[in-house]
């Protein structure tokens, strides 16, 4: 990163070169933010950065492993120094490739469990830890953590991931409670199955359709819609929202677990249909 004059408010987005993070980076840039993308993907980070610049936005791409505390803390400090402020931090990054190694509790290895915490919870903590003093000194700032509905409800697999995301949600409450009076808000966004390029590549079609069927909306969640919620929470429009976890899950967590079966039973009339359907 080279020193540059500030152009608009500044947002640092981890995992900003892929999936939801990419959509977030492009949306913030479209709306006048200087965007710093922190991602370990050495191919897509410069590509997405250049796409933002070509579209007229202001962006800086940094290839980094944010699990490295010294490197991440240095990036946060340099961002605030070079651009004059750090207005929004989006803790978006997660090591989703570990999900394939993450079965039920008795079967997951200790190594996978600890590596998932190191990859999916520790960076969110580090982001908060090192951005908070900067934001407090500014008198203002917003942190948005990306959680998951897997951190709010039990699943048959993804034990480590669920525990890590539950930690992200509690971290959000802790930071909000401790720092909101000092001008720094902290919220989380909790998506369900999101139609990102990687998810559509890695997820078996049958599993994707299970999510679609269980959601109340016509389709699974589009990453652009997650980005809209992240932007809102980062902006002054949400200045009285802190400590909250906002679900962007297509209504997955709102309906009864048997709602999907009822929809398929007697054209949605369920047991009150006439005539009474056979089981």
TrEMBL record:
Superkingdom, natural source: Bacteria
Xref: Gene3D superfamilies: NAD(P)-binding Rossmann-like Domain (3.40.50.720)
Annotated keywords: Oxidoreductase
Family: Belongs to the short-chain dehydrogenases/reductases (SDR) family.
Protein name: SDR family oxidoreductase
Source organism (scientific name): Gordonia pseudamarae
């Amino acid at each position: 990163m080279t020193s540059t004059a500030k152009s608009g408010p500044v947002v640092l987005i981890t995992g900003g070169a892929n999936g939801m993070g990419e959509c977030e980076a492009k949306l913030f840039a479209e709306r006048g933010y200087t965007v710093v993308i922190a991602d370990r993907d050495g191919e897509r980070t410069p590509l997405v950065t250049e796409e933002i610049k070509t579209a007229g936005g202001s962006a800086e791409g940094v290839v980094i492993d944010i699990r490295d505390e010294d490197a991440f803390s240095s990036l946060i400090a340099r961002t605030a120094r070079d651009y004059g402020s750090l207005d929004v931090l989006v803790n978006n990054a997660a090591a989703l490739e570990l999900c394939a190694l993450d079965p039920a509790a008795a079967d997951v290895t200790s190594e996978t469990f600890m590596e998932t915490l190191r990859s999916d919870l520790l960076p969110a903590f580090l982001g908060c830890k090192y951005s908070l003093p900067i934001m407090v000194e500014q008198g203002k700032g917003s942190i948005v953590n990306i959680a998951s509905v897997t951190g709010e409800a039990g699943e048959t697999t993804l034990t480590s991931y669920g525990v890590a995301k539950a930690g992200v949600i509690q971290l959000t409450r802790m930071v909000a409670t401790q720092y909101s009076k000092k001008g720094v808000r902290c919220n989380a966004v909790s998506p369900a199955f999101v139609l990102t390029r990687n998810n559509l590549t890695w997820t078996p079609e049958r599993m994707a359709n299970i999510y679609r069927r269980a959601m109340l909306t016509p389709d699974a969640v589009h990453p652009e819609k997650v980005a809209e919620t992240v932007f809102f929470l980062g902006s002054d429009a949400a200045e009285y929202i802190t400590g909250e976890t906002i679900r962007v899950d297509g209504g997955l967590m709102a309906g009864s677990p048997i709602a999907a079966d009822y929809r398929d039973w007697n054209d949605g009339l369920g047991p009150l249909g006439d005539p009474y359907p056979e089981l």
